[in-house]
Design a protein that fits this description.
12 helices, 424 residues, alpha+beta, binds fe (ii) ion, binds FE2/S2 (inorganic) cluster, eight-stranded antiparallel sheet
């Protein structure tokens, strides 16, 4: 990838082509739980290089506003959250959840001039989502299945990744890596263990990929040997611009991810598990909270930095690597990914990469993002703005060798969530 394209895809601050494209979509900001109480402590976040404050006001409604007071730029992290807004701790200027200045003790008549930026926000799937695009261009709310199931059925966590969002997300699209770095982990992980899927995955490492460009993004079809009459297909989707779905493992909870830029050198990786028709069990929830599966343990409470991180070399265990208990020596599915992706540098040197045939999906995703980033400014209609287009499910299925998986998917996976779940 040349320098110009690399820059266009990895820079997401206000006014950049990619930043403008991503701002056309609803962005998860924090978990609703993080701002649980009306008038409770506000939270600081950074999204696409914009510093923001999230708070729940006296009426229990969440607001997402610029972090800084319009008076002399003090952080509203230190403000008092009370009586319908945030009052800056320095000179008492007060803002409501829409960023409107509602009081200046020393000069109330100047309120009109003092408003700060705010973004429309909603709560959905236990998360606070903001819309950071231009007014009047809001797309449908996300209708990914995990956003639609009852709260009891879903678990969502987030972790900070110290790399650009693109290389993190590419790990989610690049299903070819699963046979390597996660090879041994899936045998013991409580959310993968004991499934037929693993048997097929292990038995045939030579996956043959078919990629289909769709109106929501891309569907990836991975073919492995199944039995005499059938191939085993793992079918997964990339939903524009940053969602991926994980092909299922037996009866275990379904999974997905999304990656949101914090700035050009960091991103927030969101990991989701859910059942479509039953609550997560206590054991499942406990395992997720303990950082199993695609979740992680944190460095400290309230920090979203993983306990395994660059400074401690992700607690790499060379003995475990030798003994084939961990392929890279790092434990944990998400930390295996994060360690490798952070090792590329905060922004991968795209000019010097030498891509392989298994990178086709990534190349296609990059091209789509680039084309739409460049186009959005001009014409303004990127994919997956319609909620209905998110209503799709990944699958793991045995299909007769003569069966075209694209035709099968069109009939069994697309067009809503009324289909049975296909998993082995
Ligand atoms: S800096 Fe906020 S009130 Fe003065
Ligand atoms: Fe991975």
């Amino acid at each position: 990838m040349n320098k110009e394209m690399s820059k266009a895809l990895t820079q997401t601050g206000p006014g950049t082509p990619m930043g403008e494209l991503l701002r056309r979509y609803w962005v998860p900001v924090v978990a609703s739980d993080e701002v649980k109480e009306p008038d409770g402590p506000q939270v600081k976040v950074q999204i696409m290089s914009e510093k923001l404050i999230v708070f729940r006001d006296t009426e229990g409604v969440v607001g997402v506003v610029s972090e800084f007071c319009s008076h002399r730029g003090v952080s509203l992290y230190f403000a008092r959250n009370e009586e319908g807004g945030l009052r800056c701790a320095y000179h008492g200027v007060k803002f409501d959840r829409n960023g409107k200045c509602v009081d200046i003790p020393s000069a109330p008549e100047l309120c009109e001039k003092m408003h700060i930026k705010s973004y429309p926000c909603v709560e959905r799937a236990g998360l606070v989502w903001a819309y950071m695009g231009a007014a009047g261009t809001q797309p449908d709310l996300p209708e990914l299945e995990w956003c639609l199931v009852p709260q009891s059925h879903v678990y969502v966590s987030r972790r900070l990744q110290e790399s650009n969002f693109l290389q993190a997300m590419e790990g989610g699209i690049d299903t070819a890596h699963v046979s390597f770095v996660h090879r041994y982990e899936v045998d013991i992980d409580p959310m993968h263990v004991g499934t037929q899927a693993l048997k097929y995955i292990k038995a045939d490492g030579n996956v043959i990929f078919t990629i289909e460009k769709t109106d929501f993004g891309m569907t990836l079809y991975g073919r492995r040997n199944g039995d005499v009459d059938n191939y085993y297909w793992r079918i997964t989707q990339w939903i524009f611009p940053w969602y991926t779905l994980i092909p299922p493992f037996g009866e275990h909870a379904l999974g997905g991810h999304l990656w949101v830029p914090v700035d050009d050198h960091n991103c927030m990786a969101w990991s989701i598990n859910y059942h479509i028709d039953k609550p997560l069990s206590t054991e499942e929830r406990q395992a997720m909270q303990a950082g199993k599966g695609i979740h992680v343990a944190y460095e400290s409470e309230k920090s979203f930095r993983p306990a395994q991180n660059m400074q401690n070399e992700y607690l790499i265990d060379r003995v475990a690597q030798k003994e084939k208990r961990s392929y890279s020596g790092v434990f944990g599915i998400s930390m295996q990914d994060a360690s490798l992706q952070e090792s590329m540098g905060v922004v991968q040197d795209h000019e010097n990469e030498k891509l392989l045939p298994t990178d086709r999906a990534i190349v296609m995703a990059r091209r789509m993002l680039y084309e739409f980033a460049m186009e959005t400014k001009a014409t303004g209609e990127p994919p997956a703005l319609k909620g209905k287009s998110h209503q799709i499910r990944a699958a793991g299925v045995l299909l007769p060798k003569a069966q075209d998986p694209l035709e099968w998917a069109a009939e069994h996976l697309i067009g809503g969530l009324h289909h049975p779940l296909y998993t082995l």
